[in-house]
Design goal:
The structure is a single chain. With 131 residues, this protein is of the alpha/beta class. Helices cover 21% and strands 14% of the residues. It contains 3 helices and 3 strands; from the N terminus they run H-E-H-E-H-E. A 3-stranded parallel β-sheet has the order 1-2-3, covered by helices on one side. The longest helix is centred in the C-terminal third of the chain and has 13 residues. The chain is globular.
Length: 131
């Protein structure tokens, strides 16, 4: 477990939790998103942290450090990188963003700033607001 200073869960897991402490594990919380292959609208899925888990056909972007041998980009998702990965805003994709609150809010704002329709953006956040 890597402790992130401003993490939403890792400080508890690394600083408070002790061997033998009970944990309750549940499935995903919140809403969910399903795209059916017969639908014609494009779909843009963006996930961060454990939000990446349910996604398929993944393009990875490491924000802090990459594993040895990684030759792709390292850094936060920005407008330039989004433009290389995503459907263009004119295609009006259904956008689903899942991850820590800060990630979900930042990516949703980036999408709106780039011209994606706000009503086509759904976010699923975990953790306290503003964390």
């Amino acid at each position: 477990m890597e402790r992130l200073e401003n993490g939403e869960v890792s400080p508890y897991l690394t600083d408070e939790l002790r061997p033998g402490d009970p944990l309750e594990l549940r499935g995903p919380i919140g809403g969910w998103f399903v795209w059916h292959p017969g639908e014609s609208d494009p779909v843009l899925l963006l996930g961060g942290g454990s939000g990446v888990v349910p996604l398929v056909w993944v393009d990875l972007l490491y924000t802090r450090r990459a594993p040895p041998g990684w030759e792709g980009p390292v850094g936060r998702l920005d407008a330039a990188r989004l433009a290389t990965l995503a459907w263009p805003p004119a295609d009006r994709p259904a956008c689903f963003v899942c991850g820590p609150t800060g990630f979900a809010e930042a990516v949703a704002n980036l999408l709106v700033d780039q011209g994606y329709a706000p009503e086509r953006i759904k976010t699923e956040r975990f953790g306290p607001s503003g964390a």
